[in-house]
Amino acid sequence: MRELLWPRKGFLRPIRYLTMRILRLSASPHAVAAGVAAGVFVSWTPFIGVHFVMAFVITYFLSGNMVAAALGCAAFGNPLTYPFIWGITWEIGHLLLSREDHLAGQTVDLAALFHKLNFTELWRPVLEPMLIGAIPPGTVTAVALYALTFYTVKGFQARRRTRLMERARLRLAGSAGDMPSV
Length: 182
Hints:
Elements: H1 2-5, H2 13-23, H3 29-43, H4 51-61, H5 66-76, H6 82-97, H7 110-116, H8 119-178
Helix pairs in contact: 3-4, 3-5, 3-8, 4-5, 6-8
């Protein structure tokens, strides 16, 4: 029980793991950044069951990396962040659609709507404002994380390439000294 509330290795370990997993992908910086951006963008939408599929489709059209898209979806859209995402998208959607006046005095029985799963009845009061409200924050976070991921991966790959070339140069210099002269 203690491990669930206070992990022995800390709360930041999963974040460090995901960061290193993304940085070590062998794709181009654009492909990795496009995948992460697509994953983050679709995490803002209310269609939880199809986030990965949506991210893969967007990533395909952006020539991105599918693994990066899956990691972007999983890292940004998870049970800890969904309540905040839903609240933000709901409020922004109602603000953009100017629905404050239209819903005043009306109640929406979400439990009954979800129980029936009638899409047409669920669209207007719930899904439409959340989908419209997901576009601005989704775009902002996707663009910001694209830039951050692109330059981070580019720098990491350049440093890694330099280290590998130095290691190969030292190995070649060491093996050349071992050869007998003729």
